[in-house]
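Our preliminary data section would be incomplete without showing what the modeling component actually yields. Below, a chain of 319 amino acids is followed by its predicted structure, encoded as tokens that our downstream tools consume directly.
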Amino acid sequence: MASYITRKILSLIPMTLILSFMIYLGMDLMPGDAVDYLIPPDALSTMSQEQLEQMRESLGLNEPLVVRYVKWLGGLFHGNFGYSLQSGVPVSTLMKDYLPATLELTIAALLISSILGILLGVISAIRRGGALDQILSVFGMIGVAIPQFLLGLICIDIFALHMNVLPVGGRMAYQGQGFFQRLQYLIMPALVLGFSMTAGVMRYARSSMLDSMGKDYMKTARAKGIPEWRVNLVHGLRAALTPVVVLIGFRLPMLIGGAVVVEEVFQWPGIGTLFVKAVRSQNTPVVMMIGFFSVLLVLISSILVDILTAALDPRVKLS
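Predicted structure:
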């Protein structure tokens, strides 16, 4: 196991370099640069080309792409994540301010969707063909089809404006509030973000559970006189969880990317909102740091999924 994890970690290095360079190249291919967004349009029309070039030179934008990328990478290894081209604030400070909010939202959505999705999927498989199965299937189709921004607006209208039981948006009313004090702000965006994923996990868990229920080891367990609930939960569910864990493991990085819409709707101060603003203004250091973090999260998730799969299914051997 230790040698497998070591090899996987070493394989992350070239993959991370390639993906981060592709992100950097994509930013460079966008029209314009950060100077076009830093200077107001009326002031830009009065500045000479020499003045603009001096600004680009001071920001290091005139250097070749590869040189800029290598400098950024070298600074990363030394713990220097760069500075925002808009505000001059260190990127590490921005990540420290915005990342906890996004992790809080995505982890809450992941827990909600995983628990509900697996539970409803197992119930639907056990009650297949019945009325409950049909209702849950309709629920799953609605969850996959409805856009997150529309569901968010509906929830705001019902629970915030009409029923007045939850706040419209934001993360906290006052600075320094603890987690439980700001929990009411988390409920609605976490449920909206997790709703579509709940439907996907439920349908996947149902299909996997139905497949495991027809296996020979399930029939053998029943023939031994083991209670039906134990056959389904201990023998069937453990085997059915393997593909579901793979799905859930790769959903966490996708949730962080997908949180952009929910963060915009509920004015949640996370890195999704920061990323959109940075891309629009071509704030390369901020975009690169968020992209680098997302790439690492995806690659680390792949290792964790492999380990969890081996732990759940004894037939899977990590070599």
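Residues 154 and 160 are 10 Å apart (CA to CA). The first helix runs from residue 2 to 29. Preliminary results of this kind motivate Aim 1 of the renewal.
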